[in-house]
Amino acid sequence: MTGQAGVGGFPGTVGVSPLLVPGWRRLWRDRALAHAEHTGRQLSGLAGGDASHLADAEVYVARVSEAETFGMCGRLTLSTGDPTRVRRTDPSSIRDSQEDFR
């Protein structure tokens, strides 16, 4: 690979075909972007006092492993076993506990 520039001059992109980009863009749009926009709508609702999307929310606790490994963005702490359901969330409690998030 020495001496091969790749896409945009980046050696790690040797062999990456620009023909793959439309598929990657579709995945990004349909998954990551769609989830981010959905989260944005929920945040806008919360800002306006609407917590209705939390009506079916549940709280879970997972035990954390002592072991760490490397993830895509650095260190990753793993959970062990299945999460345990703690309680069902009451949307009215969101307003009562909003001080916890400031």
Q: What does the model show?
A:
The chain has helices at residues 21-47, 92-96; strands at 58-71, 74-88. The protein has a two-stranded antiparallel sheet with strand order 1-2. The chain is built from two helices and two strands, in the order H-E-E-H. The protein is flat, with a radius of gyration of 21 Å. With 102 residues, the protein is an alpha+beta fold.
Biggest sheet strand order reads 1-2
Given as residue ranges, the uncertain stretches (5+ residues, pLDDT < 50) are 94-102
Order of helices and strands: HEEH
Largest sheet features: 2 strands, antiparallel
Q: Which shape, going by the Cα principal axes?
A: flat
SS-derived structural category: alpha+beta
